[in-house]
Design a protein that fits this description.
The protein has 2 helices and 4 strands. The protein has a two-stranded antiparallel ribbon. A hairpin with a 6-residue loop joins strand 3 and strand 4. The protein starts with a strand and ends with a helix.
Length: 88
């Protein structure tokens, strides 16, 4: 797992942190956070009027979710377009 934190020796801000075995299969966000992300996604897609690829981050210090990037989704929508255009 990578976290944004000062690395030992001053070599930047990314360092690897081992995840304990007991935590490797557990969820990293709560049910309420999943619902919040879904609401954010619906609002972002409504705003742009198209499916969006949305990246988010969870701040470990304040436990807040942040949308860090949203761009038009291209993979699944192109597959759907190709399927719709295929001769029958």
């Amino acid at each position: 797992m990578s976290v944004r934190s000062p690395a030992e020796g001053g070599g930047g801000f990314i360092k690897e942190v081992p995840v304990p075995g007991t935590m490797q299969e557990s969820s990293c966000i709560t049910r309420d956070q999943v619902i919040m992300l879904a609401r954010y996604a619906l609002e972002i897609e409504k705003h742009y009027g198209m499916p969006m690829d949305i990246e988010w981050a969870l701040d470990a210090e304040d436990n807040r979710l942040y949308i860090v990037q949203a761009r038009p989704e291209t993979v699944w929508s192109q597959k759907e377009e190709a399927k719709a255009e295929a001769p029958r």
